[in-house]
Amino acid sequence: MTATFELNTSVSNLRHLAASDLAPYDAVYLGNIYCRAYEGNLLERPVELQDAIRFVRDRGKRPYLTTYAAPRTDGLAALRRALEVAAAEGVEAVEVHSLGLLKLVHDAFPGLAIHVGSFGNVYTDAGVEVLKAFGVRRITPSHELTLDETDEIARDTGLSAELLVHGKMPLGVSEFCFLLDYEAKWDARCPDLCQQDVFLRREDWGLKSVGKGILSGRDVCMLEHLPRLVSRGHRHFRIEAASESPAYRQGVAAVYREALTRALAGEYAIEPAWWRTLRAHARLGFCNGFYFGKSGMQYLSA
């Protein structure tokens, strides 16, 4: 029997979804986790969310709904409407990042499977046991954990872990948009400001700003380490592309689709063309995040 895996990504709005080739993916998280004012954010547009869910499903993929990384009380009404649409349309799962929203989904939408996202502060197996009591089916461990720590949590709790294998690592979220101060200087207004590529750079150091969110400047790249991931039993992988172009979303995923298939077949060999594709999309180069207990800016070969 051929081993299977899931490759997923995130798409913020209907415009980006319609422009994206989803062929390399198995599932798509719908919505932008950082900002209610993000252009066309599906979390704020029930009719467009319904269209997006059907768009994903019509292409044979699993639609997931994501939710805000740091939800505020005044945003809960909109999230409830999004959850109602998700439940009515039968999305495969909802991703939450906060305990309050976890309880809301658990209590009010018992038919929705729950994933806990990267801002859910999953650091320990004890924490995962609490989440399991609320019916959580999948976790994204904190990006600050090493791979060994993630392996241990997944093994000891029996809960599936979703791992970022490529893309800019989400690092933080703020209620204030840092880009608004530059509307006049850059002659761009919200929500167009965060559609630009904004990097904070000093020498070879860099971060990417998406307004209320801060991401790694370098792309986390685990291409060389996929055999290790699958050998430890991991089967759920994410291309983080919420702030990327449709070309990035398709090109990077096509590489990982083929690479993961080979890794699971035990026939792993990296094609030179894969590196060319990934390098063409990486503005500041690659890193491994904190997977190997090093600085999030470093890249270690297998």
**Unreliable runs, pLDDT <50, ≥5 residues?**
none
Overall average residue pLDDT: 95
Percent of residues in beta strands: 15-25%
Spatial strand order of the main sheet? 1-2-3-4-5-6-7-11
**What's the total number of strands?**
12
Q: What sequence of helices (H) and strands (E) makes up the elements?
A: EHEHEHEHEHEHEHEEEHEHHE
Largest sheet, if any?
Answer: 8 strands, parallel, barrel
Secondary structure category = alpha/beta
Specify the number of helices: 10
**Helical content class:** 25-40%
Distance between the termini: 28 Å
Provide the gyration radius in Å.
18 Å
Shape: globular
Account of the protein in words:
The chain has helices at about 15-20, 45-60, 75-90, 100-110, 125-130, 145-155, 185, 225-230, 245-265, 270-280, and strands at about 5-10, 25-30, 60-65, 95, 115, 135-140, 160-175, 200, 205-210, 215-220, 235-240, 285. An eight-stranded parallel β-barrel has the order 1-2-3-4-5-6-7-11, surrounded by five helices. By secondary structure, the chain is α/β, with parallel strands linked by helices. It has ten helices and twelve strands. The radius of gyration is 18 Å and the shape is globular.
